[in-house]
TrEMBL record:
Residues 76-293 form the KIB1-4 beta-propeller domain. It comes from Triticum aestivum. Keywords: Signal. Residues 1-28 form the signal peptide. InterPro entries: KIB1-4_b-propeller. Pfam families: Beta-prop_KIB1-4. This is KIB1-4 beta-propeller domain-containing protein. The keyword Cytoplasm does not apply.
Length: 339
């Protein structure tokens, strides 16, 4: 135990990064002064709130504030619409409504251009058409061979997939498996891209690489669909209900449970274990519902951030507007930054 108490700071920092449970990190920081000092230098991997704009991109640390030390950010993302985020600081962005799609590492400025068109397989032959990304997630950071990108789109198809080396997005074949036209949120979980729609369907997509002859390969999409049976809530006239998918930070679950801190947003949600299964838990939510319906995207002049804050399971009728207020963004809704 004495040897563990004096672990090298680099080794200890790597151990702390593996602790997705907040309470486990608190206990680890209480071992001795050395462990506490290293723990404070390596804060828990809770996401930051990212507020993009053409003027300045700001970050805010939950359980901290704008006054805390902030990571240096590249200027590459200024003026872009942020469509989704992934662990490690990667984002899917759109520089213009229908153009400028890319993967962006916000700290380094590394940028990987994404195609602007999608190929849709039809019985009469393939067609290609322009597309706009509404929300997107990635399976692994580029240039990994495990890197795939899935996007909810505004075009003649609802879903599109890409991997490095492809000059066009690929849509699942029409007539092959379920075709959902109203997907609202998307995440990557246990090797599958999962989308939830406004009709309470969960549709899971698995991109697979198959040999195509002459040493080449082709991308195919395997699809499964599941119907949820939601009870107890009746939508009132004029009420807008949004659906979200929440993978746990540990990768073990795709659930909403008590005893967790949930960070909810379009294509950027994550759940963190508090270590107290019986505790009520909290939901931190963003103002990311577009004009019209949750699954519609309109390039707006202003993206409000007034309807953002925290909700506690144990006090269902109260919302805590605990996130900092700011004027509406002119480029993008706020998004969770998984640094």
């Amino acid at each position: 135990m004495a040897a563990a108490a004096g672990l090298h700071p680099d080794v200890l920092a790597r151990i702390l990064l593996l602790l997705s449970c907040i309470v486990d990190r608190v206990r680890a920081s209480a071992v001795n002064k050395h462990w506490r000092r290293v723990s404070l230098q390596n804060p828990p991997p809770l996401p930051r709130l990212l507020r993009p704009s053409t003027a300045q991109t700001e970050t805010y640390r939950i359980f901290g504030g704008f006054g805390d030390p902030r990571p240096s950010l590249s200027e590459e993302g200024r003026g872009s619409r942020f469509c989704g985020s992934a662990p490690g600081g990667w984002f899917v962005i759109s520089a213009e409504p229908w153009r400028g799609h890319a993967l962006l590492h916000l700290r380094t400025g590394e940028r990987v251009a994404l195609p602007e068109r999608v190929r849709i397989p039809l019985n009469s032959g393939d067609i290609t058409c322009p597309m706009m990304i509404r929300a997107a997630v990635i399976s692994a950071a580029p240039p990994s061979g495990d890197c795939f990108v899935a996007a909810i789109t505004s075009s003649q198809t609802n879903m599109a997939f890409w991997r490095p080396g492809m000059d066009c997005w690929l849509s699942p074949p029409v007539g092959m498996g379920p075709a959902r036209r109203s997907a609202e949120d998307l995440t990557y979980y246990d090797g599958w891209f999962c989308a939830v729609d406004s009709e309470d369907y969960l549709v899971c997509y698995k991109p697979e690489i198959a040999p195509a002859g002459d040493g080449a390969s082709s991308l195919t999409i395997r699809t499964n669909a599941y119907k949820f049976h939601v009870h107890g809530h009746q939508t009132a006239p004029g009420e807008i209900v949004s659906h979200y998918l929440l993978p746990s930070a540990s990768g073990a679950d795709l659930l909403m449970l008590s005893g967790q801190v949930l960070f909810v947003g379009r294509a950027c949600s994550k759940a963190f274990d508090t270590g107290h299964a019986g505790s009520p838990g909290y939901i931190y939510f963003l103002d990311d519902v577009y004009t019209g319906r949750p699954h519609s995207v309109v390039q707006q002049k202003e993206y409000p951030c007034a309807d953002a804050g925290r909700w506690c399971y144990s006090v269902p009728d109260e919302m805590d507007r605990c996130l900092p207020w700011a004027a509406p963004s002119d480029t993008s809704p706020c998004i969770w930054y998984h640094h």
